[in-house]
Amino acid sequence: MKYESQGVAKLYFIAAIGLFVGQILFGAIMGLQYVMGDFLFPEIPFNVARMVHTNLLIVWLLFGFMGSAYFLIPEESERELYSPLLAKIMFWIFLVAGALTILGYLLVPYAQLADLTMNDLLPTMGREFLEQPTITKIGIVIVALAFLFNIGMTILTGRKTVITLVLLTGLVGLAVFFLFSFYNPDNIVLDKYFWWFVVHLWVEGVWELIMASLLAYVLIKVTGVDREVIEKWLYIIIAMALISGLIGTGHHFYWIGTPDYWQWLGSVFSALEPIPFFMMTLFAFNVVNKRRRDHPNKAAVLWALGTAVMAFLGAGVWGFLHTLAPVNYYTHGTQVTAAHGHMAFYGAYVMVVLTMISYAMPIMRGQKAANETAQKLEIHSFWLMTISMVFITLFLTVAGFVQTYLQRYSDEPQSFMVVQEQLATWYWLREAAGVVFLLGLFLYIYSFFAKGKEVEFVEE
Amino acid sequence: MEVDEVQLKRASRASLVSLSNLTVLPVIGFIILLLLYKKTAPDTIDRYYAVIGIKINLLAAVALLLVSGLMVVMGGFESHMSWIYMLSYFVTAHALFILVATWALVRSWSGKKLR
Amino acid sequence: MSVQLSETEPKLLPGDLAIWFFIFMELLVFGIFFIVYAVMRSQNIELFNEYQLTLNRELGMANTLLLISSSYFVVRAVHAIRGDDVNRCVYWLYAGLAGGTGFLILKAVEYSDKFSAGIGLGTNTFYMFYLSLTMFHFLHVVLGMLILLAVVIKAKRGAYSADNHTGVETGASYWHMVDLVWIILFPLVYIIR
């Protein structure tokens, strides 16, 4: 570790992994509820499990992004973090607020939670992914501002690189777009517009910038390829991501009572959204192929390559699959969406955070790379998680196609619940794959504690 | 193997065309690839990548068109399940071929063989 | 340099390879857009023909000339830097930027005219395409100008010379793409019936 203050990232990463476990546990519970509707009822109803599953995902990814930024920025800026203390305080505030919110979901009925947190004063609750009580949302904004101030001051007073600037742009965008979540118009169509401005512009806009810069950073570190080459790629990737992603928001506006030009704009622009992801794959392959050294941290290289490939498959291919308006007319809101969501979030954002953790964690623990046994276990866990996620996606895709046909396309369309019963086999298979994923995750955590022969590192 | 600039350029062009044939320029890409192949000499890097490209694309044609076709024909043209399996299979297999062709492209840029 | 080039195969593309990836993607976007336009037009020929007449062809023509001459100025700039004449290169780039500015002004006049007539994306299919295509192109003109401006700033700092002017060629290549798209867009949307 070059700079003392990079160490704050460790807190964030540990919290991120902890919440990740929670997310997957609730995913597994919910997967079972798909086929056994009364499982754990009334303690954890399906809607609560779902809320916890998605909210934990977002919160732990935010922890991961912040941790990554705290690790990456001092090293890139060639100076200590502006205020490590502020970073630590914000960590605890965010963790406590996050935990209280999740407990709130689990312990009190949602309507009561809204009352308790005085949602009436500024109603923002009740929308998918943005279910957090208003005070939690305000807390998120405060934490984000303090975080941006902290890293902003570090970047602006230190060495400025393309990577830090792209990362900062992404993180500022993340905070700015979140502000739309405070605007909650009565008109439900307008409400959806602004809701998507948060959700879409995050995952298909500014988060892509964050992801590209984190990936670029790890690739520079593990391959020793010239910064110049990597920066050039970064420029093109983010330009394509923004050109396609911003207007690509239109693919959410097809059938919600919006003007029909969105069907054209959404289709054309979101058809291009796979391109930046494809370029990321090309970029990662190219950089690894041109590597100047074999970094001892093989696990990190694998995670980086895996991110590029899985993001292309999950976000690019599976997104394209149902993004064109005529296709989406039938597949809208079916299990096809769930398939895409799972692989895209795992492939793009989960994996990029795990890439960062894989690279940074050994360094923060005073090694260049984890020992051989630990790396072997980590690589096993990579394959367990990734392959089971591929299967989750495939099973959900097939379920989605069957659902689309039976419910929307056939000559005698059947009702939602009747169709759901016919998908049970696929849901069982998905649940099995989900359990394997959970095992992979446990193995991943275990790998941090495994002892073994230290890897040898030839100094550059 | 000696690699000169012209061969290197042709090798990367061959892999690029092979990737295009899988994505934006089906058939046309393959014809260009065959024309490129005719320009190459045995035991050169460009011949190597032209052959790789041809192999990938022939394999892709069999795996994507023939197998998908068989799935529908054998499963029954009217059976919706055969279409559903075919679509899932096609999307997955097609993406995998694109990834392989991308790796070939990257390797050809550096003038090295695949392995 | 011509001597050197004639010995090996000539360099395929001027400027940085990366910008060509980008240009390729951009052309793909516009290409898809043009195809969609053509398909929609063939389904609504009467509507398209009727509203096409409401467009201001004179302004469109003037804009075409502005962009073409601006492209020419940028070519002159590349020639100037190949002759190691940084000052002249900067002047020609300014001329190119002036052409772009003129384009933006005329376009703004055209839009304000349409908007004040109450026309928007939702008015009808033709206006939807007219506005989204030209506005998307408008944004590209802005981006192209920013790129040219960056080239001007770097040139003034003495970053380019006869031996090293990839940056100028890169900017010029992008600018030509912007011009090229307009040359297709203008007849397609304003003229062809």
Describe this structure in words.
Helices cover 75% and strands 0% of the residues of chain A. In chain A, helix 3 packs antiparallel against helix 5, helix 7 runs parallel beside helix 10 and helix 8 packs antiparallel against helix 9. The model of chain A has no long low-confidence stretch (mean pLDDT 94). Chain C has one domain: Up-down Bundle (Four Helix Bundle (Hemerythrin (Met), subunit A)), CATH 1.20.120.80. In chain C, 81% of the residues lie in helices and 0% in strands. The N terminus of chain C is likely disordered. Chains A and B meet through helix 10, helix 11 and helix 14 of A and helix 4 of B.
Task: Tell me the layout of helices and strands.
The complex is a heterotrimer of chains A (460), B (115) and C (193).
Chain A: H1 8-35, H2 46-77, H3 84-107, H4 110-116, H5 134-157, H6 162-178, H7 188-223, H8 227-248, H9 261-271, H10 274-289, H11 298-321, H12 325-331, H13 335-364, H14 372-409, H15 416-422, H16 424-447
Helix pairs in contact in A: 1-2, 1-3, 1-16, 2-3, 2-5, 2-13, 3-5, 5-6, 6-7, 7-8, 7-10, 7-11, 7-13, 8-9, 8-10, 10-11, 11-13, 11-14, 13-14, 14-16
Chain B: H1 5-22, H2 28-39, H3 45-75, H4 80-109
Helix pairs in contact in B: 1-2, 1-3, 1-4, 2-3, 3-4
Chain C: H1 2-7, H2 17-43, H3 45-52, H4 57-82, H5 86-116, H6 125-156, H7 166-191
Helix pairs in contact in C: 2-6, 2-7, 4-5, 4-7, 5-6, 6-7
> Beta-sheet strand percentage of chain B?
under 5%
| Quaternary state of the chains | heterotrimer
Helix content of chain B: over 70%
Structural class of chain B: mainly alpha
Assigned CATH architecture of the domain at 232-448 in chain A: Up-down Bundle
| Morphology call of chain B | elongated
Order of helices and strands of chain B: HHHH
Sheet with most strands of chain B: none
Order of helices and strands of chain A: HHHHHHHHHHHHHHHH
Instruction: Supply the helix-strand structural class of chain A.
Output: mainly alpha
- Count of runs of 4 or more consecutive helical residues of chain B: 4
**Beta-strand segment tally of chain B:** 0
Question: Regions of chain A with pLDDT < 50 over 5+ consecutive residues?
Answer: none
Helical residues, percent of chain A: over 70%
